[in-house]
């Protein structure tokens, strides 16, 4: 029953991308560390992946990324400014 749902939306001048799963969510005690460099929950991980994602989204695209627990899973939300003249999503 694994599920990943990707949703595209538009709000004001921003594009919104949500990626939601039903994998149990993120433990509340690590939620504020999830985007920090070298933080990992994997035994052989290096903790660079989500750190780089956040850096690219915020510094290269002037956007935002956040994570929440919803309905038994995690939900990543990316908010990115749209270019002028971009068609509706």
Shape: globular
What structural class is derived from the secondary structure elements? Answer: mainly beta
| Order of helix and strand elements from N to C terminus | EEHEE
Radius of gyration: 14 Å
- Overall pLDDT, averaged? 91
Q: What is the strand content? A: 35-45%
The percentage helix is 10-25%
Specify the biggest β-sheet: 4 strands, antiparallel
Write structural notes for this entry.
- With 89 residues, this protein is mainly beta.
- 13% of the residues lie in helices and 36% in strands.
- It has one helix and four strands, in the order E-E-H-E-E.
- It has a four-stranded antiparallel sheet with strand order 1-2-4-3.
- A hairpin with a 2-residue loop joins strand 3 and strand 4.
- The model has no long low-confidence stretch (mean pLDDT 91).
Topology:
Blueprint lengths: L3 E8 L2 E8 L27 H12 L3 E7 L2 E9 L8
Antiparallel strand pairs: 1-2, 2-4, 3-4
Descriptive key words:
about 35% strand, single chain, 1 helix, 4 strands, mainly beta, about 90 residues
């Amino acid at each position: 029953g694994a599920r990943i749902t990707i949703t595209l939306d538009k709000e004001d001048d921003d594009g919104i991308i949500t990626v939601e799963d039903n994998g149990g969510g993120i433990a509340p005690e690590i939620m504020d560390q999830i985007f920090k460099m070298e933080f990992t929950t994997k035994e052989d991980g290096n903790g660079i992946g989500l750190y780089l994602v956040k850096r690219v989204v915020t510094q290269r695209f002037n956007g935002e990324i956040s994570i929440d627990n919803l309905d038994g899973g995690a939900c990543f939300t990316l908010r990115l400014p749209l270019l002028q003249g971009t068609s509706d999503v």
